[in-house]
Amino acid sequence: MPQYCSVPGCRNSGGHKFPEEKELQLKWRVIIKRRDTTTKGLWKPGKHDVVCAAHFKDADYRVSGLLGSRKRLLPDAVPSLFLFRESSTPRSSKYSRRDDVDSSVVNNVQLEVEVGNEAEVKQECDDLGGIEPMHQEMGVQCTILGRFSIENLVNDPKRIQYYTSFRDYDHFMLFFNCLGPAVNELNYQCLSLTPKDQLFMCLMKLRQNKEGLELSFLFEVSESTVSKIVITWINFMYFQLKEINIWPSRDIVTDYMPDDFKYKFATTRVILDATETPIQKPSNVDV
């Protein structure tokens, strides 16, 4: 049974398996912009999943053999060609299938699509969220925009709730403002990220238990910086919020306690649920 390309919308069969090296594999996963249908997070490939040759440049291959008959993908190659076909329906994007395109613009490692309306293509790319067009002589390829940021999700409450548990951007900002002006005076300062994005990163770690490598790639910082930000903000939030009384009164607990608990565990006051989250230990524990 043929293995189809993992890039969303592409139906080419065969291709290159995802690299085993974690950092390089993460680059592939992020750049193809495929989301897990269940978790809505970053999709993870299986051992047989592939990206077809249409998404790699000629420069990504080492050519050998008689008259260049053999092509082998370079070990550090990353897919970079993501092309859109001209569509008669505005604001809709369709991925080009190799068998739908005139053979004059297809070769064995690169797919190029002739596009007649730049404005329409730009609109299609905008609709995909976080993609901008980059025009070439015979086609259009797309590249991912900059780092992950809470500001990009202002009008996307579903994703904010998924990443942070807050209902929407307003609730996120309410919590951020409750932390006070001290957010700008933390012991560890990351100048490349705003305090809001540092909090966003920390909440993503707590909510989704995302790996430091993935967070470093999304926010364009080093893994050690991710670890320092997470530790700094967890300690900071603890000191800022520790005075809040989170324990309900005995009467409230009794009123809301299930009948089965009232019968079997009448003295129950609270149920603790904990999740162990491994993080990278900084060399300086005072940071």
TrEMBL record:
It comes from the Eukaryota. The keyword Ion transport does not apply. It holds the Pfam family HTH_Tnp_4. InterPro entries: THAP_Znf, Transposase_HTH_dom. Keywords: DNA-binding, Metal-binding, Zinc, Zinc-finger. Residues 1-82 form the THAP-type domain. One of its GO terms (molecular function) is zinc ion binding. The keyword Membrane does not apply. This is THAP-type domain-containing protein. It comes from Mytilus coruscus. The lineage of its organism: Eukaryota, Metazoa, Spiralia, Lophotrochozoa, Mollusca.
